[in-house]
Every structure is written in structure tokens, then in C-alpha cells.
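Retro notes
What went well: the complex prediction finally ran end to end.
Inputs used:
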Amino acid sequence: MGYPETRTNNARVCKPGFRLLLALILAPPAGLEAEHSSNPTLPRKQSTANHERFAALKTEFKSGPEVTTACLSCHTEAAKQMMQTTHWTWRARAGGDTTGTNHWIGKGAGVVNNYCLAVDSNEPRCTSCHAGYGWKDKRFDFTNEQNVDCLVCHDTTGTYHKFPTDAGHPNNVAKEWPKGSGKMVAPPDLGEVARHVGRTSRATCGGCHFFGGGSEGVKHGVLDASLVKPERAVDVHMNASGANFSCTECHTTVNHQIAGRYYDHAGYEKREFVMRGVPQSALGCESCHGNAPHRHQAKLNDHTDKVACQTCHIPLLARAKPTKMWWDWSQAGRLDAAGKPLVEKARVSSDTAASSDGAPEVVVYDGMKGSFIWAWKAVPEYAWFNNHLRQMVQGDRIDDTLSGAQTGATHGESDRLDLSKPVVRINELEGGYHDPQARIWPVKIHRGIQPYDPVNKLLIVPKLFPSGTNADRAYWKSYQWPQAIEAGMRYAGLPYSGRYGWIQTMMYWPLPHMVVPKEQSLECADCHRPAGSRLAGLGGFYLPARDRNRVLDWSGWLASLGTLGAVVVHGGLRFYCWRKRGKA
Amino acid sequence: MSKRVLIYTRFNRFWHWSQAVLVILLGVTGFEVHGTFSLFGFQRAVTLHNWLAGAFGVLVAFAIFWHFTTDQWRHYTPTRRHLREMVHYYLRGIFQGEHHPFKKTELSKLNPLQRLTYLSLNLLIFPIQGLLGLAYFYYDDLAAQGFLRDGVGGVAQIHTVGAFALLAFLIAHMYLTTTGETLTSNLKAMLTGWETISAKAVPVPPKPSSPETRAG
């Protein structure tokens, strides 16, 4: 016997043609509800193992690696699997590399960005989001299985945390964080966490991915802690009282390998249905929804060859929490009388929020990091993207001779970019109208100003975080750029001329998360409009209602007006002659 | 002496007026899709335009059937006979109070200028608009087959040219309805079917099937 089938039948009955026609014309798209079947809910997944009863875990753990040793005593292959993944290596072969010249991409292979700039020389801070223990400098042993952090992904208690500055280790005594705040962070009870491990969750993935770039929501614009238990309006798939998807529902995971885009590695290539059970990730929207997902608005399906699902279904950036749009490192260094970095806060502004009353407060200046502009509930920018992203790594030469205007750089709504000065693209999205793999995507573009070496034409890898033997030279200790830059560049093995300047940079972040319910998705006229089209910035193709041939339109109106004029003159003459004849 | 003649049969009138309504609505919705103004909203304008175009297609199918089964297509046979008189009338005679030189009969209801205009509408503008409309609607399927690689722009623009041609036609056409025996006699004829024919007008062109026409 299966589960009892209790399908509600509200399927449309066939109506006379004209009524169907009327219905299609007059009904708003939200009225065209798909049929819902109320299939029975499956019982909650339960593990066949109760970790509380495992002898190896009935002990007090003093450190993370001790827990890992216990885990591996049963899960003998887990660390080996984990070590093959980018969550461990923080790098992969560059996608386009066929030369075998050891060209790598990843944070562990010198990726630079315009948030916290670079990992090298700052490891203990950055690697608080590494799925391992102890990556505090270049000497980290990537082959030691005990260094794998099982708990950070498998905790189900919500109490496990790595201390932000301890190279991925949790603190084992109460420690103050943030520094100088007087708030003490208690150490996690490792034994308790270990006895309550389970599947990964939105909370465990989000422990790092919701906080990228230094604090919540900063980096992606569509990932923040509101996704731990989101409402339907925040994310229609993760809706805690609905489908309740975990991250791995789409980021299909096999043997610890989690499907997803990684720099220039596309998350998926084929946009098509993925049958359950086949060894293929279900990362793309099409994996479940197919290429013709709109049942009652067939014309919408005609868009799927050029427009990503995300474009209409992720209509706003940072809908829950604000995200950073502009980061100017050149402004860093303002300290108060006591020598502590200044911090300024302000309410974030939003173009689309009904009122600014509930607007969250954000840090707009931090003496450690510079000045920021944030966006909240903002309209994204749009770009062609074929799932391949070119990414700079440290040591890549930059061009500071052409202005941003000359290289086609653009402003966003919230930045202070000066297009008369150079703008370096730290990453670029591949694709264009004629690329059959490319679609129009919503993107966040993070713009900023960061240090560079104008002689060697290199972006700077500065030593920001005070650690290691030259901790005193770190910027967050000395607040002196010259020595912080010199220390960072030396650590990274990069040439440094001794001169540094500031250069504008921009970075693309395709927006794949926080899919809204369909009634909140974009409407046709959001793009198909002559003025204020969301796609106003995307040229090179004809978009109905947005585009027109001016010569043709003018000629057409002139011809029509000319005809009108001719008949008016003709009619007037007739009238005049008729009256003249009447009088004669 | 004048006499009353049934010029436009019931289907003829139905066809004319439904075509008129469709063309006007297609124009309104089409120019909204073009981005000229906002009335229904883009989405609704597109939906309406597509349904109207479909309706137009159905009407055309009936009209073609009617034209061939009733031999009405012969009314569009172009002729140069009396073309000069027609041009003369519109350019000079009409101002001097002359009578319309063309006498409508049930056998020949279109004057030589109308013949040329409607023939080009039926053989040129409407088919082009219809085919381009189909190409516009099925653009994605065409693109999937490797056609129109640069997008729908070319199709859209020529479709717009056709729309402007129809707009200019509509303006001239509505004005020319006032050039009948009286200001409204043509309009009345198209509404009722009946027209009062002035005895003074010459019966031109002659019966379409006459040897004279075929020769010339």
C-alpha cells in the first residue's frame, strides 16, 4: 500500500473559446495558478546511528582534531574524501588550463578580491572559514587527516563555532570577540556537538557562506542568515514552512563533493531536466523545472534561451539583509584619540523599500577597513553569463593606463566610481548575445578602491591581520600601509617596487539565491519598456519596447502625419470651394 | 435619375468591419508593444495582439474562401481605364463640384484607385504583416533552427514599417469615405450595403469579365 492519494482537483475545465480568450487577456498572471497536488508528506529522515551511544564519542574533547580522530575511527574514508574537495584545498586547476603549467585558481592559490583583498599572510583570520584546523600559514599540512573539521559542517546543535581569528580552531576557553567589545565567547562543548552530528543544513553551510566578506550579507547579496529559517517570501524553495530545501537539495553532494560553480569552473553546463537517480548534479533551475517551466504563459518559455531564470525570479538584491556595494580601502586608518579605529554607522537607504523606518543600521566607516556603501532591497545589475567566470589571481598584471570609461566600466546605483580613472576588473563574466550558452543574469557588482603597485602593475596583497613573526607590521596593528604592504607582498612571494597607489576595481557576483514566489517575480514591462528598462545597460540586441530604429520611427510618423496633413488640406480645400460655389 | 443598388453583401460588410476593428486594435496593441505608449500594459498588449492576430487569420481564411467562391476577387483586378478620370476627380473635379466619375455596381464596386490600393494591401501589406507577425511570434523556434541569429530586431522593424503603412492607409481611407455622393453616403453604404447610384456617373470600369478588360 502506498500513501493515500488526496489530490485536489482544481484543474481548469474547458470553457468556450471566447471565455478562455477573455480569461487569458484579463486575468493577471498571478491568477493563473498551477494545480497543486497535496501529496502526502514523507516522514522525517532519521539516521540509523545514534551518535550519543558511540563509545568513541563518550568522552571530553579538548580540541577539534581530537574529535576528528574519533569521527575517523568509524568514518574511515571521510577525511580522504573531504581532502579532495575545494572546501579543503581552497583551490582547483584553472578551468581553461590545458598547458599543465600548474595554473591554479582559488583562495588557496592567490585569488584576490575587493573585499578583504587576499588570504596570504592573513591566514589565521581568513581560515576561520576553512573546513579544517590550524591553517595559520604556508606550513599548514594539507595531508593530515586530523586537520579536517567535521563538526563545522555536521553540527546539528547550532552551538559549534570556530573562533574568528584562530585559524579554524574553536576556542577552548572563553575569549573576547569582537576584540575590545568586552563580549566573551564561550567555548563550544565539543563532546556534545560530536554526539549530535548529522546532515549538513542551511545553518552549517551558512555559518561561513552567509558571512563572507567579514560579516553577514556582505559578500553575495543573496546569502545571509535569514536563510537559516526563511519565510516563503525570502526564498520560495527554502521556505521553512514549505519545501524547506537544504542547500544540498540543489548543490547535489556525493562523497563530500558539493556541486557548485567554483571561479571559472561552471556549476553545470547542460540546462535540462535531471532525472532522479542519474549521477548528475541538480544545480540548475532547469534540473527540476526544465526549459519550458511556464505552463500558462507559453511566451515566457520563449525567454529561456536568452534569459536566466534568476533574472525574473530574483528581482532584488539584498532583500533580507544589506550587502556591501562599495569598499574604499584608501579611507582606512582614521583612529580615535585612544588610537582605536573609528567606526561610523548609519541606516542603509533603499530605493524599493516602502519606508526607511525599519532600515537596518550598517557600518559605513571602519578605521580598519575604510568606507563602505551598502544596498538593501536594491535592483541588481544585469550581465551576460555562460556560467564561466574569469578570475584574477595575485601576480596577474593589471592595466592602469586606460580610464574606466575607455574600458567600458560602468557605475552602479551605490558607488563612488570615477570613470575617468582606471578600473580593474578582478573578475569577468564570459558570454554575450551570440553565445548559445550565455543567459542574461542578475548580478551584484562590488566596486571599490584598493592598493596596487603602480610600477609592477600588481594588485597588493597586504598583511592586514597581526599574526606570525611579523605581526607588528600588520595594518591592523600599525595602521601603516607601507610596512603592511611590504610584509604582505614578501609573504606572497610577489615583487614590490616600494611604491603603492590606489586603484578602482570591480567584481561580478551572479545572483543565484533567494528566489522569490512567482507573484513577486519581474513583470514583462520591467524590461520591455522604452525608459527605465532593467536591461537598459545591455546593448547589442533588439529588445521589444525598449529598442526602436529612430530613423524608421520618425519616417513612419512623418508619413502618417503627412497623410493626415494631406487629407486635412484636401478636405479644407473642398470645404472652401463648396462654400464659394454656394455663394456664387 | 438615381437608383438604389445593393453594393455590399452581408458577409462583405461583416468582413470589412471586423477587419477594421481588428486592424485598429492590432495597431493600438502593436504600437504599445513597440513602446510607443502605455495603455494595456506590455504583457496584456502582447497577449491581446497575439489573439487579435489569430482572429485576423481566421477572418482572412473566411474572406479568401468568400472571395474565391463568389468571384469577388475580380473586383481587385487592376485596370488603367479611367484611372486618369479618378486622379483628375480627386485633384480637381472634387473641388469644382463635379460628380464622382465612378459608378458602383454590384459587378464593379471598386474604382481603379481602390483596386490598386486594396490589391496592394491584400497581396503585399497584409501577407507581409502576417508572415512577419508569425516570424515574430515563433522567433525562438526559428532561432533554434539557425534563422534570425541576430535576434528579432529585423523582423520587428519591418513589421513596424507595415504598421505605419497601415496607419497612413487608415487615415487616407477614412477621409476618402467622405468623397462619395454625399459626405456619408459611402459610410452608409458600407453599413447598410445599399448605395444610391447617381445616373450621371459613368459605369466604369466595365464588367470585369468582359473581353474589353481582359484585353486591356
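What we learned: The two ends of chain A are 102 Å apart (CA to CA).
What to try next: split runs per interface for comparison.
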